[in-house]
């Protein structure tokens, strides 16, 4: 199948405006007869469901949590980008577009990214109208702060809990539609297969996670808003329930998987403390806005951070990247931290950490506050306290979280951070309409590949999720549904539903009947170690080939020796985990296959064979300026399709943040 991205004709800045004016519409009476299934209720899912229901469609929403409020979007901390130029520092739609393309190392579609930048301002207006408590300046104007990969302040925020506040706004809109009867909400339900008829998505099979009952649901369209697959690494900043199952079932029913090897390593995570951990905790990138990152100039320096004088500190990001300093993109900052630690300059007991220090900016804020308060010759202690109060107002909950986890007071001593798996830029391949190559099946937010290329800039995940849900899918879905108004609802007794449910039931029974000796977590941890060691922050040909063989062997062992206690007709978290890890064991192999064939370094994908003399990522635009879209054929067998990336509005160049 040829990949048709369906990008509209015309000038880049006019594509979306013209498209919205010409896209087919569905009249209100017909909307009431069309049913849309939304799988996932995070920012993308809740905003899409609320918007589509408001338009008149019948909507069903499915989430595996007990409430949409528990979606992983709630964990986002730092902010949401928008090109409003409130700071009057030269921002614009084009600059946000340019920063996103460059930050993604020129591996994203121009048309999709420009549309994202174009609608970003609407997100802020929408959320303010919903009552989202964005931070404000003294005069009442919305406040902005800096994030990595940019030289302007365009990030809107609500302290260190922006994702939670945005999700509550979308949740309120969703609950309003539920209260009006326009949306049916199915909590504690997990989608375990997509039902297709004649190549079109026509419904899903979902499992009631409380009773174990398998349910059939028809839909004229299926929207997958199920987030990313970072938990393939076991240890990540994702919630433990985050998984790839919905997207993977869609993939095995024909949807292409785009750029699976593009995973993001976040530079500001609390370091691993031992084998007991089941997840990692992220310290928001917003902390890089006021924190300075450094390591001792002396290898294996035994002194405490506060005892190391200024002249013996290496502010390595400011040294290597003077134009951006501590605000280089995440992939650049992560590799720089790894390089310093590998060279013997790491700190902490594990020596796998660097310092994130707020002392300098606390003093700067303190001096400013002293002037504002008219204090003459304030003491160093007073300045310090005033600065601490400012930092506490901006980041207090993050500092409290760090202290609770580590037992260290970050106001008095620098935080220790190290890179960790965070976001996945890869996902289901979608066209300009956000539809996969399977008609009627859409992917929104982190579940698709479309907007971030090989590296996502900070504060752009919330932007994409809300843009897709509030402002893109309500228009683009009409292009498909306008042709489906005469399609009669598929009977739940149709052979496609029967076959799909039987396949799901057989897989569940197989997992329960293996009755092996090893837990699901045992296999997940083994997979995570393989992925981190050989397809993590750095990859090479030999390691990737070894990883593929090791994953195949581990998968074979899983299906022979995993032990899943309990039964299928009850609340059974181990059964849920088993199904998800089984999918991760297949995805992991594809990620390594994708990383192996992409013999270049770009963004978060760092092939050791392809780097500059200074250790920076070295792209190969002549051979790899494309989206890798993988078609599932059989176990361990995929076919690669390529969508050529054309850059007509930006001059493609080697990234430099110096």
TrEMBL record:
Residues 524-657 form the Fumarate reductase/succinate dehydrogenase flavoprotein-like C-terminal domain. It catalyses: a quinone + succinate = fumarate + a quinol. Pfam families: FAD_binding_2, Succ_DH_flav_C. The active site is at 330 (proton acceptor). Its EC number is 1.3.5.1. GO terms for cellular component: plasma membrane. GO terms for biological process: anaerobic respiration. InterPro entries: FAD-dep_OxRdtase_2_FAD-bd, FAD/NAD-bd_sf, Fum_R/Succ_DH_flav-like_C_sf, Fum_Rdtase/Succ_DH_flav-like_C, SdhA/FrdA/AprA, Succ_DH/Fum_Rdt_flav_su, Succ_DH/fumarate_Rdtase_cat_sf. Transmembrane segments: none annotated. It is a peripheral membrane protein. PANTHER family: SUCCINATE DEHYDROGENASE 2 FLAVOPROTEIN SUBUNIT, SUCCINATE DEHYDROGENASE FLAVOPROTEIN SUBUNIT. NCBIfam families: PRK07573.1, sdhA_Bsu. This is succinate dehydrogenase. It comes from Solitalea koreensis.
């Amino acid at each position: 199948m040829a990949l048709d991205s369906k990008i509209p004709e015309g000038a880049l800045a006019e594509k979306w405006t013209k498209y919205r004016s010409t896209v087919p519409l569905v009249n209100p009476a017909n909307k009431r007869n069309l049913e849309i299934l939304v799988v996932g209720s995070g920012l993308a899912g809740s905003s899409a469901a609320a918007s589509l229901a408001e338009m008149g469609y019948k909507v069903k929403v499915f989430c595996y949590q007990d409430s949409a409020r528990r979606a992983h979007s709630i964990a986002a901390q730092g902010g949401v980008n928008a090109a409003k130029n409130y700071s009057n520092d030269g921002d614009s739609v084009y600059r946000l577009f340019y920063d996103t393309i460059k930050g993604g190392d020129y591996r994203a579609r121009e048309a999709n990214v420009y549309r994202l930048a174009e609608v970003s301002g609407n997100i802020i207006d929408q959320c303010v109208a919903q009552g989202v408590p964005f931070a404000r300046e003294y005069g009442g104007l919305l406040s902005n702060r800096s994030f990595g990969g940019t030289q302007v302040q365009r990030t809107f925020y609500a302290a260190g809990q922006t994702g939670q506040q945005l999700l509550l706004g979308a949740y309120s809109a969703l609950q309003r539609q539920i209260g009006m009867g326009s949306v049916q909400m199915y909590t504690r339900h997990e989608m375990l297969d997509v039902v297709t008829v004649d190549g079109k998505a026509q419904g899903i099979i979902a499992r009631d996670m409380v009773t174990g009952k398998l349910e059939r649901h028809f839909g004229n369209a299926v929207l997958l808003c199920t987030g990313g697959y970072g938990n393939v690494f076991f240890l990540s900043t994702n919630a433990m329930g985050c998984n790839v199952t919905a997207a993977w079932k869609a993939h095995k029913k024909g949807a292409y998987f785009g750029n699976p090897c593009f995973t993001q390593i976040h530079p500001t995570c609390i370091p691993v403390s031992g084998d007991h951990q089941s997840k990692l905790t992220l310290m928001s990138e917003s902390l890089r806005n006021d924190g300075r990152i450094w390591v001792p100039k002396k290898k294996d320096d035994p002194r405490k951070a506060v005892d190391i004088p200024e002249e013996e500190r290496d502010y390595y990001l400011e040294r290597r990247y003077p134009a951006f300093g501590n605000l280089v993109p995440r992939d650049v900052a992560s590799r720089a931290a790894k390089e310093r630690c590998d060279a013997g300059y790491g700190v902490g007991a594990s020596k796998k950490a660097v310092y994130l220090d707020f002392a300098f900016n606390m003093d700067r804020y303190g001096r400013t506050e002293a002037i504002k308060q008219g204090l003459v010759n304030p003491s160093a202690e007073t300045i310090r306290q005033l600065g601490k109060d400012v930092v506490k107002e901006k980041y207090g909950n993050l500092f409290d979280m760090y202290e609770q986890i580590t037992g260290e007071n970050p106001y008095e001593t620098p935080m220790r951070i190290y890179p960790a798996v965070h976001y996945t830029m890869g996902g289901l391949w979608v066209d300009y309409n956000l539809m996969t190559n399977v008609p009627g099946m859409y992917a929104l937010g982190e579940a698709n590949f479309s907007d971030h290329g090989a590296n996502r800039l900070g504060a752009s995940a919330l932007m994409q999720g809300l843009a897709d849900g509030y402002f893109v899918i309500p228009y683009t879905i009409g292009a498909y549904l306008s042709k489906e108004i005469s399609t009669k609802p598929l009977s739940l007794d149709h052979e496609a539903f029967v076959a799909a449910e039987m396949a799901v039931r057989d897989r569940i029974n197989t997992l329960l009947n293996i009755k092996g000796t090893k837990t699901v977590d045992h296999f997940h941890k083994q997979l995570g170690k393989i992925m981190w060691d050989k397809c993590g922050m750095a990859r090479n040909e030999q390691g990737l080939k070894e990883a593929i063989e090791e994953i195949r062997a581990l998968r074979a062992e899983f299906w022979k020796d995993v032990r899943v206690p309990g039964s299928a007709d009850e609340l059974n978290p181990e059964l849920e985990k088993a199904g998800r890890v089984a999918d991760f064991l297949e995805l992991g192999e594809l990620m390594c296959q994708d990383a192996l064939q992409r013999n270049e370094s770009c963004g978060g994908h760092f092939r050791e064979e392809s780097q500059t003399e200074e250790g920076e990522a070295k792209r190969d635009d002549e051979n790899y300026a494309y989206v890798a879209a993988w078609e599932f054929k059989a176990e361990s067998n995929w076919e690669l399709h390529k969508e050529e990336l054309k850059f007509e509005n930006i001059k493609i160049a080697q990234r430099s943040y110096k």
